[in-house]
Design a protein that fits this description.
alpha+beta, four-stranded mixed sheet, 17 helices, 25 strands, binds uridine-diphosphate-2(N-acetylglucosaminyl) butyric acid
Length: 500
């Protein structure tokens, strides 16, 4: 079997805590062989050793010259098993937000200097993005114990992503385009994939690039962009909707071009603002933060620096709901209240008992939860679509009938069919609206995650249900929830990861 390494073996060993000697022992080879592979002077050539290494590292590390040689490994069935009915008590510290880290990391591709990120969550979307950066040629150092990631994109090659399949794993890979295009005048990626929450066209991104004079060539397999000028011919982007990632992508692009531009109807989510603040710190001049209109004076040769990933409001909401449905008391630390005001408003209307403290939220046992007339998702500062499914679970535990109106995505009510399997009283009116009647004693069932947030919602339902709930497709949950099972266990829940 002939193989090559998709990424530097030394980095892979560091990330996975193997030393050359422990790896050599495990594979039954001399330590010098491992050093040679790390130095790139040879690759493993025995079938037995290649298979053992593949079992450890899989497709992330190893590429087979002949794809037929790839060992067929039976896929493990992985799920979360929850035994409901336990009260949650204690404290939890909220890590950095996935949806801030992803665009901020992409902004690091604008500069040849090192960017250091603190408060980085250890989740699979971050791991995938960093692997994509390594394919580009970026130097990455990760220390998740300290929550620090360093990215140096000095020697990246924008042509390296044309065949990179990892890009297909998540929709946020599209955020790479703005930085590569600004720095190199061209960018090409495979068509990004992601959660199944709706049509989510890429047009908000591609039409906006085109309106600034970028040549866009996109089909069902790839996106190719080229920009040949130093200056924009048209300097304005008029977004048709306040798209979060399109705002980030275009702001990153405009920050890296030595010219002025204006973006209208931009998104205001906290993670968008965090990315804009990073671009400011790197040297771009940006006016209009916190409004729907940005004026950007970009420049070449932006600087690196140290940037903190802001805390994840979606996690705050998820853990708060976990306590409200199970009883108990929880202190949630590292909370940015400003991004959660609509969530707090909705909680208040259910009669939930909670207290806003300095950078923290305390949630108390709330025995008399009542339904709310309408929970309507909206762009910021409205109620976040990402908290809609966890809140749907809360509504099953509120007395009376509530209406959910999911305005953004057309597939984000599918989780309700899973909740029905657990005994919830649900009436789906159309792809965007459903009624939930409570209070219902949920019962354990085998259910699946339909997307990242819906997966977390099913775990919440399991916490309050009678008996055993098994939630499958947990790879979705791992995309955004750091140590979800462990954290819930530390608060007293009975949740375990099972692999069989
Ligand atoms: N939309 C509207 N009206 C608007 C804005 C958007 O209807 O004013 C619709 C659009 O049609 C679009 C959809 O909502 O198809 C998605 O909106 P957006 O383009 O803002 O979403 P996104 O940028 O693709 C980001 C987050 C999502 C989050 C949405 C909405 C990242 C990497 N992703 O996606 O996060 O749901 O914004 O806030 O930031 C998640 O973390 O689970 C997740 C899916």
């Amino acid at each position: 079997m002939k193989i090559s390494f998709k990424k530097n073996l030394k980095n892979w060993c560091e990330e996975n805590r193997w030393t050359p000697s422990t790896l050599a022992d495990h594979l039954g080879v001399k330590r010098q062989s491992v050093h040679n592979w790390m130095a790139g002077t040879s690759t493993p050539n025995s079938d037995e050793v290649v298979t053992k290494l593949f079992l450890l590292a899989g497709d992330d590390l190893i590429e087979f010259e002949n794809t037929e040689d790839r060992p067929k490994i039976p896929r493990k069935n992985r799920y979360l098993q929850i035994i409901g009915g336990k009260e949650l008590k204690g404290e939890i510290n909220i890590p950095g937000a996935k949806n801030a880290a992803l665009p901020m990391f992409c902004a690091a591709l604008l500069t040849t200097e090192k960017c250091t990120f603190t408060n980085v969550p250890e989740i699979s979307d971050i791991a995938v993005l960093l692997q994509i950066f390594e394919t580009l040629g970026a130097e990455i150092s990760r220390d998740f114990d300290k929550k620090i990631v360093e990215i140096t994109a000095k020697n990246i090659d924008p042509t390296k992503l044309g065949k990179c399949e990892l890009v297909k794993k998540m929709r946020a890979s599209i955020l790479i385009l703005g930085a590569l295009l600004a720095r190199f005048g061209k960018a090409e990626i495979q068509l990004p994939g992601g959660c199944v929450i709706g049509a989510r066209p890429n047009s908000a991104h591609l039409d906006s690039f085109a309106s600034l004079g970028v040549f866009v060539d996109a089909d069902e397999n790839k996106i190719s962009l080229e920009f040949e000028r130093e200056k924009f011919i048209n300097k304005q982007v008029l977004f048709s909707e306040a798209s979060v990632t399109a705002t980030e992508n275009l702001a990153i692009f405009c920050a890296g071009i030595a010219d002025d531009s204006e973006l209208f109807f931009t998104a205001l989510e906290t993670h968008v603002t965090a990315t804009l603040k990073m671009l400011q710190k790197m040297g771009a001049v940006i006016d209009g933060l916190g409004t729907h209109c940005l004026k950007i004076r970009g420049k070449k040769n932006l600087k690196g620096g140290t940037f903190e990933i802001p805390s994840d409001g979606i996690l705050v909401g998820t853990y708060a709901i976990a306590v409200l449905i199970t009883g108990g008391e929880l202190l949630i630390k590292n909370v940015n209240h400003a991004e959660l005001m609509s969530f707090y408003g909705a909680l208040q209307r259910t009669g939930a008992i909670f207290e806003l403290q300095k950078n923290a939220l305390k949630v108390f046992k709330s025995p008399n939860l009542k339904s709310i007339k309408k929970l309507q998702t909206s762009i910021f500062p409205g109620f976040s679509t990402d908290l809609q499914s966890p809140f749907g679970v809360l509504l099953t535990q509120c007395e009376g009938e509530s209406l959910i109106f999911e305005t953004l995505f057309e597939n984000r009510l599918i989780y309700l069919s899973e909740l029905e399997k657990m005994g919830a009283d649900i009436q789906v009116l159309n792809p965007h609206q459903a009624k939930i009647r409570g209070k219902i004693k949920l019962k354990g069932a085998n259910v699946q995650s339909w997307d990242l947030r819906a997966g977390a919602a099913m775990v919440l339902a399991g916490l309050v249900a009678d008996g055993v709930t098994r939630v499958s497709n947990i790879n979705y949950i791992e995309r955004g929830y750091e140590n979800f099972a462990e954290n819930l266990r530390s608060l007293g829940a009975d949740v375990i990861n099972i692999e069989e």
